Amino acid sequence: MQVSVETVGNLGRRMTINLPADRLQDQVGGRLREMARTARIKGFRPGKVPAKVIEQRFGQQVRSEVRDGLLREGFDGALRDNALRIAGQPKIEPAEGDDLAYVATFEVVPDFGDLDVSGLKVERAVAEVTEEDIDRMIENLRQQRRSWSAVNRPAKEGDAVDIETWSEVEDARLPAEGVERGVSVIGSGAMLPDIEQALVGMSTGDEKDIEVAFPAEWRVPELAGKTARVHLKAEQVSEAMLPEADAAFIRSFGVKSGEMEQFRSDIRTNLERELKGALMNRLRRAVGEQLVEAFASVELPPNLVEQEAHALVAQVAEQARRQGRPSQPPADAHQNFIEPARKRVLVGLLVGEVARKHQLVLDRKRLDETLRLIASTYEEPQQVIDLYRNDPQLMGGLQNRVMEEQVIDWIAERAEHTDQQLTFQEAIAPQA
What we know:
Elements: E1 2-8, E2 12-18, H1 21-38, H2 51-81, E3 86-94, E4 101-108, E5 121-126, H3 131-144, E6 147-150, E7 160-169, E8 172-174, E9 180-185, H4 193-199, E10 207-213, E11 227-241, H5 247-251, H6 260-294, H7 302-322, H8 338-357, H9 364-375, H10 381-390, H11 392-414, E12 416-421, H12 424-428
Parallel strand pairs: 5-12
Antiparallel strand pairs: 1-2, 2-4, 3-4, 6-11, 7-8, 7-9, 7-11, 10-11
């Protein structure tokens, strides 16, 4: 097989692969003859199907499979022979004028030098789940199961108020006729602070007008960035009724025994799983920031960075869609994501190079533990474990995730690291 490699720029490569016609034909013929011995086609006895029928039925498929196999063989061999480490996915297309020649264009991993991480300064967040954290979670679960009872008193923090509203801005009434109805739990932040505070002290039937400054990004264009007079009417004030954390309450969360000790143990397990993920995310970010700073001058594969920028745009669009804000990003939207894309590509390539240069291998025990943790969040854990083990794509993604975490831990351990003690609540809080 004839293969040649050209350099295109610092990190670009163009590889030409010429498939050997005789080998291609030999392999295709061999496959078709093998299929002829076992193929079951209506109207023919097994093993007696004419070669012409086999060719007509399976020839195109077999040629495609053999061609793809030879292309992979030639491409992978050339990468090894030329000591090339590919970055991203190659683009392989037929060459013009020759149906046995193909051209692969791709980018390679830049040279990061010795990759000495001992000079990095990494702050590692540490935290643990306390009994107070478990108490707080039980209280949150009680809040989730609360019911409401109407009261004949002024509203206070924590009460739910059924309200009717209409607004007036620049001599225009919104809505033009009638009112808008909603429910606000005072202190929940579901409504603007000015409106929630105005509800404090209102009783059923009370009405008042207040001035409200609406944010520039407010969902109603007529009010966005403007100050309006808002009319409020309290239709009903209700107070929360919290369920007792008794055996029935505990059983409703899947603890068959109804015992508080088991309930708290299950909650601890869930919180520790959440904490472990949060601490790894913080460490990943801390290590990533140090790597970006240390290797900021390294040239990165431009196509790979652009692909990552497009992926970030797609993520933002998908998130907006899930929140009920579908949008069509402009064609050049990825330009606004080039810098974060560059950082993500840089960290990803560095993690891979650290693993390669230091011959780090996947920790199977850690992989199994991570899989069990994921499965434990479902009602039938074993089904989830079997699903991963029988799906190469799912398992491959999990293996990549675990390997990345191993490398992040490896780098942090060898860098100049200090520990930052956090509470559970601080550790799981979103990072700015």
